[in-house]
Design brief:
By secondary structure, the protein is α/β, with parallel strands linked by helices. It has three domains: 2-109 and 246-328, FAD/NAD(P)-binding domain (3-Layer(bba) Sandwich), CATH 3.50.50.60; 114-242, FAD/NAD(P)-binding domain (3-Layer(bba) Sandwich), CATH 3.50.50; 336-391, no CATH class. It has helices spanning 15-26, 55-66, 126-134, 152-162, 176-184, 190-199, 250-254, 289-303, 310-330, 335-338, 355-358, 364-371, 383-391, 407-411, 419-422, and strands at residues 2-11, 31-35, 70-73, 76-82, 85-89, 94-104, 108-110, 123-125, 143-148, 166-172, 204-205, 208-214, 221-226, 231-235, 238-242, 245-247, 259-260, 263-264, 277-279, 346-348, 353-354. Strands 1, 2, 3, 4, 5, 6 and 19 form a seven-stranded mixed β-sheet that branches. The two termini are 22 Å apart.
Length: 424
């Protein structure tokens, strides 16, 4: 195992992480950027055989080179063995990274809510479907239905059409009244108004949700239901579901950071409850790319202990927080969508735990002990948020290793079982 030291360590190389790196490096700090993807850009700017590198990422890459920022891609944080230290694993080796200040920009993951048939091959998250396409998976000519809530449905539909898929229907669970109020207020964000016009589709239907995926060994059709109770069955090859995003807060929770809802709690300068640890982007609250960029700039300046240009970053953040609140009000999930799962619907895919099994349990810990829910390969990253929506269960703080790790990585030094032990 090798050891390295940096002034500012940033975990996550999406919009927030790149903005934080630019701000901190611009103040003369030594900066290291860590991301588990093979290249910087995060999920939103993911490149691949069928996706060109975003011009924004190219500009940030030039900045990284200009300021000599160390970008460590294909690297995963597996533990926090001591205060101001993270244990990082790459494909080839393990690294003990010592830092003065840490900026968490770990982003978010898709919220997948169970419904009958959601485990069939061909049913996936909309982000997963985009990732398949960008990675070069050939889906030309295949038929897709997109269902869930939020603007990502329209953005995904455009990606699918550009690569030759047939988008049969885009169904949004929010009622048209809320959508109309949201659209009427877009004049405050002209760029978003233009984007909505570009993404608009005649296949879009509101006040509608998926109620069931149909098929024997693979998806063959989906059943869609309107808020008035009318049902329609559509044959298709793929169903992309997106019920919103949930903050990726595991590393912050491991480090002892307090939560506000599901997000890492931050103050007006993006400081978390733990000294020397800041957070920015979706892990501190879902708000979109522009808000993540503003928060990242502010966190980078704070990590560098610089007052430079904070006023502009705070002004941008305030503006995009208003947009984030509008999104939240518009696309809040209705009760009918939250409770699509039937008694025999599988909630935990890894351990085949059904809803009727979980209905008898009082909390997340008891459910794990009795049914092994959340103890499979994904370690509750899918069923954990789902059970929080279904039962209001709060998951316990994670324990290291955060992700599967090599024995030599963990045996190179003693890894504590909790953040409190790491701080001793």
């Amino acid at each position: 195992m090798r050891t390295c030291t940096t002034e500012v360590l940033i975990v996550g190389a999406g919009p927030a992480g790149l903005a934080a790196a630019q701000a901190a490096a611009g103040q003369g700090c030594r900066v290291m950027l860590i991301d588990d993807n093979p290249a910087v850009g995060g999920q939103i700017w993911r490149a691949g055989p069928l996706a060109r590198q975003s011009s924004a990422v190219l500009r940030f890459k030039a900045m990284l080179d200009q300021h000599d920022v160390t970008a460590l891609t294909g690297a995963r944080v597996v533990a926090a063995p001591a205060a101001n230290v993270l244990l990082v694993e790459t494909t080839h080796d393990s690294i003990r990274v010592n830092y003065r200040r840490l900026v968490l920009c770990t982003g978010a993951r898709e919220l997948l809510l169970p419904f009958p048939g959601w485990t069939l091959p061909g049913v996936t998250g909309i982000g997963g479907l985009q990732a398949l396409i960008k990675s070069g998976y050939d889906l030309r000519g295949q038929r897709a239905v997109l269902a869930g809530s939020g603007p990502l449905l329209l953005a995904t539909a455009r990606t699918l059409r550009q690569t030759g898929m047939q988008v049969l229907r885009i169904v949004e669970q929010a009622p048209w009244q809320r959508l109309a109020r949201f659209a009427a207020g877009l004049w405050r964000w002209p760029g978003k108004a233009r984007q909505s016009l570009i993404l608009a589709s005649t296949r879009y239907r509101c006040a509608t949700h998926v109620s069931e995926a149909l098929g024997d060994t693979r998806l063959e059709a989906v059943r869609l239901q309107t808020s008035s109770g009318r049902c329609r069955t559509m044959s298709c090859d793929w169903l992309g579901c997106g019920f919103g995003l949930v903050p990726n807060n595991e590393l912050g929770r491991l480090l002892g950071c307090e939560l506000r809802g599901d997000a890492l709690a931050v103050d007006e300068l993006q400081n978390t409850s733990q000294p020397d640890i800041l957070a920015a982007g979706e892990c501190s609250g879902i708000g979109g790319c522009e808000l993540a960029l503003a928060e990242g700039r502010l966190a980078g300046l704070q990590a560098a202990a610089s007052a430079g240009n904070r006023a502009n970053a705070r002004r941008d953040r305030a503006r995009w927080r208003v947009f984030a609140k509008a999104l939240e009000r518009t696309f809040v999930l209705d009760e009918a969508v939250r409770n699509l799962a039937a008694p025999d619907t599988i909630i935990c895919r890894c351990e085949d735990v059904t809803r009727q099994t979980l209905d008898a349990e009082a909390d997340w810990t008891t459910a794990k002990l009795v049914s092994r829910c959340g103890m499979g390969a994904c370690q509750g990253r899918i069923c954990g948020p789902a059970t929080r929506y279904l039962y209001c269960w709060q998951r316990s703080a994670p324990r290291p290793p955060l992700l599967p790790a090599r024995i030599d990585t963990l045996s190179a030094e003693r890894v504590p079982a909790s953040a409190s032990e790491a701080s001793q």
